[in-house]
Amino acid sequence: MSSSQDQIVYVVDDDEDVRDSLQWLLESVDLNVESFDSAQAFLDGYQVGQGGCILMDVRMPGLSGISAQKKLPEYQIDIPLIMISAHGNVDMAVTAMTQGAQTFIEKPFNDQTLIDQVQRALADDLAQRSRLNRKHSFQARYDSLTKREKQVFERVVQGMSNQEMADDLAINRKTIEGHRANMMNKMAAESLAELIQMAVVIGLVASE
Fold this sequence. Notes:
The protein is of the alpha/beta class and 208 residues long. 53% of the residues lie in helices and 12% in strands. It has a five-stranded parallel β-sheet, sandwiched between helices. The longest helix has 33 residues, at 111-143. It is elongated, with a radius of gyration of 24 Å.
């Protein structure tokens, strides 16, 4: 699982002075930074699965920040995006937010405001990765169940008793009890409430 030490802040801006000042500022608070002079260079240079966030200028020659944002899913990039906007590009920055950007910061930016927004984006990235790792873990446990154990799992979280499951599946109650014990063990669930929570996370039960 990613940690804050593994995360990278990707600075994407065609202005070398802006890139240098952002890198210096972010590294001054012990953040890992990689900078790119174009959106395409960032898209090509990003390592799939790397945690962090993006600081991207909304207007650049070639591929603009707005256009690059639309390409993020194509390059399997799913980390928070902060748009950097000059005063005249605020409308574009707002468009970026409607397309999923976390926020935008106007140039010239306040150093502390920028650091705060980056820290918030990195925290959101860690939380998102934690949720995803948890879901993958629960899904792997569910996938390890036999067909019969999955049938028992699904009926348990529907609130069926052992006898009701035995009647529904046309097998004896003792067999149901054995499948249920094996299923709970494989799922590493210590209670019915915990099992239901796992079912919600992997999409077997709709959350209310």
